[in-house]
Amino acid sequence: MAIGTACAIVLNLGLKNGRSEVVEECIERYNEKFSGDVPKKLSDVYIFTVFVRLPGIKLKKVYLFIKKCAIIGSDTDNIIRRDNMLKGKVAVVTGGTRGIGYAIVKKYLENGAKVVLFGSRKETVDKALASLKAENADWEAEGAYPDLSDPQKVEEAIEAVKEKFGRLDILVNNAGISDSTKVDNYEPGQFEKVINLNVNSIFYAVRPAVKIMKEQGGGCIINTSSMVSISGQPGGAAYPASKFAVNGLTLSLARELGPSNIRVNAVAPGITRTDMVAALPKEMIEPMAAAIPLRRVGEPEDVANAFLFLASDMASYVTGEVLSVDGAMRA
Predict the structure, then answer these.
(1) Mind telling me the catalytic residues?
(2) pTM reported for the whole predicted model
(3) Most buried among 14, 146, 218, 243, using CB within 10 Å?
(4) Strands (E), the chain
(5) What is the pLDDT of residue 42?
(6) Which CATH superfamily groups domain 85-325?
């Protein structure tokens, strides 16, 4: 990370408003998370001297902070995003207790949103909430575990969010199941089970969410699709079929709801290091990574970053898109 970028972080949080205490707070928050030696050299003296304009700022502290920022980039970037990109927004994330869903919940919380995560069971919801609270007790995270196959239960859970927070700005439909069954081995009802959770549950959540969003003047819906919605897969036909349906639902809803200022998009992840992939032996993961043009499997945070962008005002003119996050694996 360039020192100029590190300076921009501090300028954005403090110098812009002439508030030395904001700069001090930024530095303290950074130092709480990171420790260790700082480099011996400061390559841009101007970055340091610019802080003289702020009365009351401790120049030595800023000096050390800027030098640290020059080394650690990605985590420093989180400082400028946190409490910023989704500040004041209320989000629901289905399938939010682990993997990509949990990464989305965490990313939204880091950026100032209030988040209600939906899970399949009370135990998994409580575990996820405990983990989030242990990381940051100030995050506003709550949980619920409605039966996503029951439209009435889903509607009640969505309405409870509105009753609690007064609005619903973001709906992330992430819950789903995969499948790899060969076509001649499908059991009765197995195909329908995949379709019900991966497609029908999205529709059940969208209907009450849209009602709320229309009343408040807008909102954002993001659905989790998949790389296989574009390329298909050899086996488990129910899964790509369900994700093709998710894409169609996304595009149609975007066209229908655009006049109500409701944006609808989807994210299509590729091979991602979820618990299932992480548990695979190295000799299985390496060939998968070698087949990806970026030569690595994706991390849940890679996908969560796409969900963050699409939920933010930076994507205010983006709707009806299926955003691939797969390292060009689909190509």
Answers:
(1) 239
(2) 0.75
(3) 243
(4) 90-94, 114-118, 141-144, 170-173, 219-224, 262-269, 322-325
(5) 38
(6) NAD(P)-binding Rossmann-like Domain (3.40.50.720)
